[in-house]
Every structure is written in C-alpha cells, then in structure tokens.
Design brief:
By secondary structure, this protein is mainly alpha-helical. It has 12 helices and 3 strands.
C-alpha cells in the first residue's frame, strides 16, 4: 500500500513512530501531484524545494520533541486560535494557575464559547445573536474576521487566488457566515449571489457569474473519514 493510500491518522502514526519520515511523505505527495498535472488539463503550482526544506525542518522538530499543538490558526468552538503568549503569561501570573491549567483553558474554554458565553455551536450563536445577544454577535464577528485574515494571508503568499471554497459544518450550512466572510473579499472582486448562497449543504457556486474570484460550497464527509480512521485503529 502506498503512503497516500493510508488514512491521515495512519500516516501520522507512522511518522510519529519513525516508520516513515516527513520527507518521504512529502516526496510521495509531490510525485502524486506531478502525475495529476500530466494526466489532467489542469495544473497545480508546487514549490518543491521549499516543501522538501520545510519537511526537513518539521522532521527536526519531531525528532527533538517540538510538536505544534492544535491552537494555531483561526479561533474555533472552544480553542483560542493564535494568541500572544504574553497574554497567557499574564493570566497565569494574575490567577496563579499552572501551564496545564492554562492550556486547558485555551483548548477547551476559549474560542467562540469563551467570547460568547453561550455555546461552541455556531447554530446557537446565530440564534442568540438574532435575539440581540451582543457577546454572541462579537464571537461571530471575531470568527469571520479571523477566517478572512487567514485566507487573505494565503492570497498574498500565493500572489492571487482563483477560487475560494467553503466546506464543513459552518461553511456548508451557515449562509450568514459565508456572506459575512465574503464581504471581506471585495478587494478581490468577489460578489456573492444571495439566492445561491441561501442553499445549505449543496455542492454549488455561490458567487455571481461576473465575480472575479469564484466562490463555491463543497460538502465534506467528516463522518466517513472518522469511520475509516476508526476501522484502521480497530483493525
């Protein structure tokens, strides 16, 4: 079985246990991309040398026990996302809590739950915000801002973008979140078709025909991935 035929969980386990190096996994992905570029009337721009260099860097950190945690990036249901570490230090000193307690707060009691004080479920936040809950609205605004900020950083790094895809729970089902996030991309020439954006959980283009960047909703199947990984674990 090839490396790319493994589930993400199984591949991660092999890397963690040293059966496969990060470079080997990266080389397998690059080889697959090369085959796809030759076989389809499409292309993917790949920074091969940079990818391999970053793979080596990740391997060094892995070998040294310096692994990244789940906090980096956009604030989620209960996770804080990117945060100035000095904030964590201030909270720890002020309230006399340990690093383990601080990490528990950042992982399980922060994000939109911590800001809203309502829920980690975006459906509950939408309902509360509609009823005038300012903290719920603030949590939604924060999430929309951070998604736009992260996407914008990648647009800059790639020197442009051809399409933006919404997926998973919020991306597939929340027309209000999609619309709010898309508003940030006016500078890219993004325009949203309100009627198309009113759909939930469908594979559909929600941008207008004249939008300079196409915007799509593509449903995912997280349950299937979880089932496959569970099967791989249980044998």
């Amino acid at each position: 079985m090839g490396l790319l035929e493994l589930s993400a969980l199984e591949l991660g386990r092999k890397i963690q246990e040293g059966e496969v190096s990060v470079r080997e996994a990266t080389e397998a992905a690059l080889a697959s991309i090369a085959q796809q570029n030759e076989g389809n009337n499409a292309f993917i721009t790949v920074l091969q040398e940079q990818a391999l260099a970053e793979a080596e860097e990740v391997q060094k950190k892995l070998s040294a026990g310096e692994l990244s945690g789940p906090l980096a990036g956009v604030p989620m249901g209960t996770r804080a996302g990117d945060i100035d570490t000095c904030v964590a230090q201030f909270i720890m000193n002020k309230y006399g809590i340990s690093i383990d307690e601080m990490l528990n707060i950042l992982n399980k009691k922060s994000g939109v739950l911590g800001v809203s004080g309502v829920s980690s479920d975006f459906r509950d936040l939408d309902a509360a915000a509609a009823e005038g809950n300012d903290r719920a609205q603030l949590a939604l605004d924060m999430f929309h801002y951070w998604v736009a900020k992260v996407v914008g950083s990648y647009v800059a790094a790639m020197n442009g973008v051809d399409a933006i895809i919404f997926t998973a729970g919020v991306g597939e089902n929340s027309k209000s979140s999609r619309a709010a996030i898309a508003e940030y991309f006016g500078y890219l020439g993004v325009t949203i078709d309100p009627e198309a954006n009113s759909k939930r959980g469908e594979d559909i283009m929600i941008s207008t025909p004249d939008s300079k960047v196409k915007v799509f909703v593509i449903p995912t199947n997280e349950e299937l991935v979880i089932a496959r990984d569970t099967k791989a674990i249980c044998g």
